[in-house]
Request: fold
Amino acid sequence: MLPFLLQGLTLGFAAAVQPGPFIAYLISQTLAHGFKRTWVNAFAPLLSDGPIIAISLLLLSQLPQWLQRGLNLAGGGFILFLAWGAFQQWRGFSSLTTAPATETGYSVLRAALMNALSPLPYLYWSLVTGPILLSGWQKNPWYGLGFLAVFYTVLIGGLMTLMALFGAARQFGERASRALLGSSALALAAFGLYQLGRGLLGF
Reply:
C-alpha cells in the first residue's frame, strides 16, 4: 500500500503545480474575484476527472488522428473564449472590487469544463497515473482507492494553496493584481492558440 500512497502524493503535487490552461484559468479567476469567491473551483477535477479517467484508459489511446485534432480544436476555442473573458476583466479591473459574487455552482461547472477540455488530464491519466491505478487495483482494490484518495487530496490542497497565494497578491494594490490578471489572460490565449495549432497542424 505504501508505494501507491507515495506515488499518489508525488503525482498529486506535480499535477497541482504543472503549468497548463486549467491552472491559468484558476489563477485568473482568483485574481479577478478573490480567493474567498473562487476557492471552490479547486474541486473541479472531482467533477471532470471521472469521465477523463474512463476515456483515457479505454478510448484515448485508440482514437483516430482526426478525432484527436477535433478535441484539440474544441478545447482551443474554449480556452480562447476564457482568455477573452480574462482580458475583459483586466480591461475593466477597477470595477472588480464591487462586482457581485459569482454563482458558485456555475463557477465550478465552468472550471470543470475547462479541465475537461484541457489535454493535460488525458495525457496524465493515459500515460502516468492510469497505469499506476490499474496496477494497484489489480493487486488489491484498496491500493487503487488509496492511490486515488492521496492523489486528489494533494492535488486539491495544492490548487487551493496556489490560488491563495495569487489571491494574496490582490493586497499589493490594483496595479500588481491587474498585471497578474493580464498575464493570466495572455497565458490562456497562448495555450488556446497552441491547442488550436495542434488541432489544425497536428504537431
In short: Residues 2-201 form one domain. The chain has one domain: 2-201.
